[in-house]
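Worked Example 4.2. Consider the chain below.
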Amino acid sequence: MKYYPEGTNSSLVKRFASLRELKEAADGGAVYEAPVLMCDSAHNLILDLGCCRGVIPRTEGALGILEGTVRDIALISKVNRCVCYQVKGFHRNGRGTLTPVLSRRSVQLACKKEYISALAVGDIIPAVVTRTEPFGAFIDIGAGINALIPIDMLSVSRINHPRERVSQGQQIQTVLRKREPEKLTFSLKELLGTWEENAAGLTVGDTVTGIVRSVEDYGVFVELAPNLAGLAEPYDGVSPGERVSVFIKSVLPDRMKIKLVIIDSFGQEEAVPPLTWFVSEKHLDCWEYSPPDAAKYIATLF
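Applying the procedure from the previous section yields the following structure tokens:
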């Protein structure tokens, strides 16, 4: 079976017409998704299944809840979002009403065993950004299982916070950088193009837009693309995060430098700049960022 980040495969979302259908689903062991209507006071998740509501008991809501390594906020945060599940059985209350009992944990265990355990360093997979913290972006790599992209692996161009590069709910591609027994670390920058690929569309004399990333005494660093920044001459009144227009004064591949002149400023950038993917393969062994004749060699070995 193929596993997806939650909410990215609409074919998994099924509205059942009857309890009979649900019983057949329980017998087949298939994986489905449904929106979470609420997380009750006991931290059980209540799902809309179409013909009725189903319940994911707290300890079946996520890997780590039963073991005590994951906090209940991981369940509360799923309200109004689609989660994966399998139908495990039915509970009959005192009035004789049947409620489907579901498990998200069982799907995550299978995903970990059948999919995630087989990933090799250098493998490129789809993911969804679940939240950002000052140190990095958390991503769903399959069935709601989270991993981390550290902030310094989000791009070559330096940023102050991951939200400047990605946003919650964004679908991305990512590459596995490091495997540890209970931790996977992913990266984004190797998929966003080399220095040459990003500089290919720039010509001396052009005026283009960019985002101010840092202001120093000797000049202003302006991001032209997530993996490409240039240094502009000092310019009063700009601050990190502002969008500016810049004149391209020189492009120096051997030094990996672009010299700029700021023409105008347009205030703080509001939307996250779109990402362009430069890698179509499913695996990387080596990624060379620097041009062949550059004095400095920058590469990632997987």
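The longest helix spans residues 19-28. The two ends are 27 Å apart (CA to CA). Compare this with Example 4.1 before moving on.
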